[in-house]
Amino acid sequence: MIYIVTAFEIEARPLVQRLALQRSADSPFELYRSDYVTLIVSGMGKTASAAATSFLLTAENANESDLCVNIGLCGDSAHGDSYRQCAR
Fold this sequence. Notes:
Blueprint: E1 2-6, H1 9-18, E2 22-24, E3 30-33, E4 37-41, H2 46-59, E5 67-70, H3 82-87
Parallel strand pairs: 1-4, 1-5
Antiparallel strand pairs: 2-3, 3-4
């Protein structure tokens, strides 16, 4: 299984569309699935990412043969509204 973590829906959207992932309602996070890929939208920040990743890997009973990646476009809050500029 491949697990993908993104902070924002705008980062997840192209992957959800390209991989034909379906929204799952059984999660406190935005969660999308297929037979081989599960994507979770964590929200901004290290704590949110850690919480979502922990939830995902625990709920899915991930093992050593699985792959987990964190994908993002922006992430530099030190320079103001870089997220909003990327989202345009």
